[in-house]
Amino acid sequence: MNRSDMQSNQTRVLIKGGTVVNHDFSEKADVYFEDGIIKQVGKDLSVPGGATIVDASEKLVIPGGIDTHTHMQLPFMGQVAIDDFYSGTRAAVAGGTTMILDFVIPQKGEGLLQAYEKWRQWADPKVCIDYSFHVAVTWWSEAVKEDMETLVKDKGVNSFKIFMAYKDVFQLNDSQMIEVFKTCRELGALAMVHAENGDMVAELQKQMKSMGITGPEGHAFSRPEVYV
Known about the structure:
By secondary structure, this protein is an alpha/beta fold. The protein has helices at 3-11, 85-94, 112-123, 142-155, 174-187, 198-210, 217-221, and strands at 12-21, 26-34, 37-42, 52-55, 60-61, 65-70, 75-76, 79-80, 97-104, 130-136, 159-163, 190-194. It starts with a helix and ends in a 7-residue tail after the last helix.
């Protein structure tokens, strides 16, 4: 086999005989793609020679999933998420997820752009699939606003998350949230909100601790649907 034949086998793939599942219907069809890009979907496809044939008879052919909310190797309140960008994305692709949107979460006072570059350094050498980032805004200043603009215009970020929870850690007050919303509108970015009453949660957490409740159940007890 010459080099061009080897290249063809690696980049041209025909999935035959499966049931293709779309968002609105399913059908028996073949799928042909080159260099990771789908070129044809249908029956009795005419494709170039040298393609690798995958028999999908009696199987479902499903588009890769996009998980829009993940936390790989996230440092959070003294702990670090157990999955890093390698183990987490390896598990993802094994289950059919081919892209994730993870979160850059700066510490208070840390520049958004600085945090973004740090997360990129963690992710780039390890990821097994496509990925992108939301970026959290955990404090506010004109420098944060400038970083948001740079992230949108130069780094491809188009969503920012704010927290109404995690008092004294990530929580913003109302006036700060308004500034984030205004900036997102100016930039054409999406604002995301972790919506809780952080002050009330903090007060109820004190109550849980005073009663000796320090296990996982305290998380739910400090966030009741109704507080009397």
